[in-house]
Design brief:
The protein is α/β, with parallel strands linked by helices and 247 residues long. It is built from seven helices and seven strands; from the N terminus they run E-H-E-H-E-H-E-H-E-H-E-H-H-E. Strands 3-2-1-4-5-6-7 form a seven-stranded parallel beta sheet, sandwiched between helices. The longest helix is centred in the middle third of the chain and has 22 residues.
Length: 247
Amino acid sequence: MLNGKTALITGGNSGIGLATARLFLEHGARVVITGRDAARLEIARQELGPELHTLVCDVRSSEQLQNMADAVRERFGALDILFANAGVAYGTPLASTTEEQYDGLMDINVKGLFFSVQAVEPILRDGASIILNTSWLNQVGAPGRALLSASKAAVRSFARTLSAELLERRIRVNAVSPGAIETPIHRSPGQSEAEFRAYAERVGKQAPIGRMGRPEEIAAAVLFLASDASSYMLGAEVVVDGGRAEL
């Protein structure tokens, strides 16, 4: 499905990004993942094998993003797929949220994503596919999640506006919108496996489908959006949330 194509996944060393990297490799793509932690990137490379390429990159840094794009150009010449996946998630109650927390979330989820696309746009082939990772929270009002929801609503908007801007190059920009997925982002420091399973069961019951999602289920949607199977989709959002935002 992706034979001969080159894909870049930001925030690809765990969770949805790592599951997507695995699936892309299985479907014949050359895959580069980025992350802030070299040790975690090496663990991912050992897990997925030597065909996986890794780059240390903090999406908050324009310099590192440019270095990322230069490294991909030097090794592969051009890109066919960008999955802008790097992001953070935490609660930001109105009464207690600090400017530091605001900046920390927005700098990665909004600024980092926008400038990731800007950095790689010159090396994207005409007809390439960009997939942005938003969230079911962009559609609902969740108490204590104002900033996370707003950041993901901005990402949803980017899928439309960047599609319009890149239309002449036939670069398709679409979004995947996960619900609550069993990834490290949901695990608290020091949390035991039993404690996490209890948490996952409690959160899973909030979705009509009755469980949390699996990273592989989001990766399958990203694969669809990256491939020619979605060639007539532009500026769209594929919601994979167990029905939580719809029912």
